[in-house]
Write a structure and sequence with these properties.
Helix content: 10-25%
Mean pLDDT: 96
Number of strands: 9
Distance between the termini: 28 Å
Oligomer: single chain
Order of helices and strands: EHHEEEEEHHEEE
Largest sheet: 9 strands, antiparallel
DNA sequence: ACAGCGATTGACT
DNA sequence: GTCAATCGCTGTA
């Protein structure tokens, strides 16, 4: 697999949300690789997006969303879940793509141990679950995905064919009119169909 | 210092 | 599909 470089991330939020589908999220942990194929994403923008953390203003939490593309925005929610996003857009403009579900590809035994389940379909089919399975937490917040080997995106050698479905985003109360959730149609590893 | 809250999950109809 | 338990973090004071 080849690594995604700066040019891959430096694009509009909606574009990257769709472009990330079918690519691989790679986590290096204790010398082992935990790998999942991204099958579901959501786009969050800034001033024009009432559903986004960056809608109102820049704060210490959302600051990384305003920074350069290709960095991790990880936040803690509901008292026990981490959420993993990839920052988009040019510096100064807020945007990020939430990774909502993976298809487990490599290091599955380690993921099962971290998640406490042996069901492959229930391992990484949700934003909180995949962070647990890949041991992603606030220590990796602001982490650059381009120049580190602890967490990065890898691209498939040849592009597979699949259909992208879209719908409203999950779990928010504002901005439900925007159909900014994207997933690979027919995948058995999405958080909902 | 602290009140309010949530980009979920798991259980349930 | 709906619902609420849950608790550390965030933002404002």
């Amino acid at each position: 697999m080849r690594r995604a470089g700066p040019g891959f991330f430096d694009t509009a939020t909606l574009t990257l949300a769709k472009k990330l589908l079918g690519t691989y999220l790679v986590r290096k942990l204790d010398g082992r690789l935990l790998i999942g194929r991204i099958v579901e994403t959501e786009a969050y923008r800034g001033r024009d997006d009432p559903g986004s953390h960056a809608f109102h203003k820049k704060t210490p939490r959302n600051a990384v969303m305003f920074g350069p593309a290709g960095h991790a925005y990880i936040y803690f929610c509901y008292g026990n879940h981490n959420m993993f996003n990839i920052v988009t857009e040019k510096e100064g403009e807020a945007g990020a793509v939430l990774i909502r579900a993976l298809e487990p590809v490599g290091g599955i035994a380690a993921m099962m141990k971290l998640r406490g389940t042996r069901d492959p379909q229930n391992l990484t089919n949700g934003p909180g679950k995949l962070c647990a399975a890949l041991d992603i937490d606030k220590n990796l917040n602001t982490h650059g995905l381009i120049d580190s080997d602890r967490l990065y995106i890898a691209l498939p050698y040849k592009n597979e064919k699949f259909t992208i479905s879209c719908g409203h985003r999950i779990g928010i109360k504002q901005g439900l009119d925007k159909k900014w959730r994207f997933w690979i149609k027919g995948s058995g590893f999405v958080s909902r169909s």
